[in-house]
Design a protein that fits this description.
mainly alpha; 76% helix; globular
């Protein structure tokens, strides 16, 4: 999962079949993340240990959904960034199929999950499609901007700042009792990613 520093020979990879293949991998990775979250929720008693483990899983899944698409498409230009967004979108579709075929029949989620949408099992799917595409698009933008500056585009390097933001959200919202730690981690992660993407876009416009 390590991408090297950008070079002049780097090109965007965004052909349709490649996007589908990469998106399928993202969808499977997402399903595994959800599966681990379900297992942790059912096996580990409620408390700090469960919260920490769930937070780790949430952040790992977020990093994969954000930066794997841009790594696979080698996002360096508008074409590569759009390709990363396409990978993210197809990944959500693949996860939807796994969710409907495997998770739903075995009642993997608590009833309160569906109750959010008034009892509907479909309320979250459009939100999921948008979120997956949004994260991958931002990941592509941040990756391309880092490469344009000649910086390190390794996933680990790109992920550290946003993961720290996620940890800050988990601690801040969790200790304050505003939201569970995993939810706070997700909120902090997305907010930090958006800030970095805006900065990257502003630098690109100035350049």
């Amino acid at each position: 999962m390590t991408a090297g520093t950008a070079t002049s020979t780097t090109v965007d990879r965004s052909n349709f079949s490649y996007i589908l293949t990469s998106g399928t991998k993202v969808g499977i990775a997402t399903a595994l993340t959800v599966l681990v979250t379900i297992i942790v929720s059912r096996v580990i008693p409620a408390g700090i240990v469960r919260a920490v483990l769930q937070t780790i899983v949430v952040l790992a899944g977020a990093v994969a959904a954000t930066f794997l698409p841009s790594y696979w498409t080698t996002a360096r230009s508008v074409q590569g960034i759009a390709g990363a967004a396409g990978v993210g979108l197809w990944g959500t579709v693949v996860f939807m199929a796994i969710d409907i075929i495997l998770f739903r029949p075995f009642k993997a989620y608590p009833w309160t999950w569906d109750a959010v949408g008034g009892g509907s099992t479909w309320w979250y799917l459009p939100i999921w499609w948008m979120l997956g595409t949004f994260l991958a698009w931002l990941g592509g933008l941040v990756t391309a901007a880092r490469a344009a500056r000649g910086g390190n585009t390794a996933i680990q390097s790109l992920a550290i700042p946003v993961v720290l933001g996620g940890i800050g959200g988990a601690i801040g919202l969790g200790i304050g009792g505003t939201a569970p730690a995993p939810v706070g981690a997700g909120a902090g992660y997305v907010l930090t990613l958006v800030i970095f993407a805006i900065i990257a876009f502003a630098r690109t416009r100035r350049g």
